[in-house]
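Look over this entry.
=====
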Amino acid sequence: MRSKIISSPAEVIDRYTILLLKYQNGINVEKELAPYLEAVVDYAEMYSDRLYDINSRMWELEDRITEEGNLKKVGALYMQLRDLTLQRMEVKNEITKKYGGFKEKKNFI
C-alpha cells in the first residue's frame, strides 16, 4: 500500500524551485519535476519567482562554501546563507498565511 504525503503550498513551491534549479544545472530530475509543474500553477507566480531567486543564491553560496579553504571566509559565507534561509522562511510563511499549511520555524532565530 502506498501512502500519500500531503505538502503545504509553500513546500510545493519551494520544492518546485529547487528541482528547477537542479534541472537547469544538468541534474536529471525531469520525472520529479513534472508533477510540480502542474501543481505550482495553482499558486501565485510571484512566490515561485521569489523562492527561485533565494534558492538560486543559496545554491551559489553552498558551492562557494564547499570550495573555500579559508575558515574566516567560510564563516562569512555561512552567515549570508543563514540570512537567505531566513528570507526563504519568510516567503514560505507568507505563502502559508495566504494558502494554508504549517508555519515554518527555525531554531537559530
User: Anything to note?
Assistant: The two ends are 40 Å apart (CA to CA).
